[in-house]
Amino acid sequence: MGNVVITGSASGIGLAAKEKLESQGDRVIGIDIRDADIIADLSTPEGRQHAIDQALAMTGSEIDGLVLSAGLSGMNTPGDMTISVNYFGTVDLFDALRPAMEGRPNPCVVCLVSTSSRFVEFDDPMIDALFEGDEAKCRAMINTMDKGAGYRYAKHALARLIRHRASEWAPQGVRITACVPGMTDTPMVDSLKEDPELGPLLESMTSPMGRNGTPEEMAGVIAFLLSDAASFINGTMIWVDGGQDARDNPDVF
């Protein structure tokens, strides 16, 4: 049994991960804007600090697993709010909570990235701004871009930051990994299907397996990454997309 903190625990993949880990005997502390052990708005620095303080208090500063699945689609939410939740709401929490994971038997962070992280240029100025950590600057920049930019830029920068953190954290014994879901049947995706422009596009993005993934399938991968069976997996992106990326990028790995 371990202490696991999950953001975005009220629905979708976060909820499925919570239920999966609880069924295995873990003590799970959920963070969300509603229906959670810790109610916090991760779009603001104050909300993130509240979540951090409460998570440390409720776990006695002993955290075995951290699952960062809270996120906005960016298609029906403002770009600046999306970048704050999806990037800063993830990075601030894993950096602040890492000390509470040091010294635990097999501590691991699992972040939710996205297949859309590939659709960004590596030398894009927006990525540089995200790495600088100036949230106000990033919010201003993203509001000049297209709808959905906040989502893909946040996920791209997060994927790269995980790779950097992996080698930095390894000497302290803390692993950091990512689950990269393909199209998954969640409330967020369901809401996007109602968009007159985006809906038909989503319907056409079927995986080679001919279906979408389920939150429970993503939760199974998250539980594996947190487990002792994955104790040597660090800095790795696990693509859980039914083979979509392999189909679209067969020579890139």
Notes on the structure:
- By secondary structure, the protein is of the alpha/beta class.
- The protein has one domain: NAD(P)-binding Rossmann-like Domain (Rossmann fold, 3-Layer(aba) Sandwich), CATH 3.40.50.
- It is 45% helix and 13% strand.
- It is built from ten helices and seven strands.
- It has a seven-stranded parallel beta sheet, sandwiched between helices.
- Strand 4, helix 3 and strand 5 (108-112) form a beta-alpha-beta unit.
- Helix 3 (79-97) runs parallel beside helix 6 (149-169).
- The longest helix has 21 residues, at 149-169.
- The N and C termini lie far apart (35 Å).
- The mean pLDDT is 92.
CATH classification, class level: Alpha Beta
Distance between the termini: 35 Å
Specify the number of helices.
Answer: 10
Radius of gyration: 17 Å
For the sheet with most strands, the description reads: 7 strands, parallel
Number of domains: 1
| Content-based structural category | alpha/beta
Q: pLDDT under 50 segments (min length 5)? A: none
The count of DSSP E runs of length 2 or more, i.e. the number of strands, is: 7
The CATH homologous superfamily is called: NAD(P)-binding Rossmann-like Domain
The CATH architecture name reads 3-Layer(aba) Sandwich
The CATH topology name reads Rossmann fold
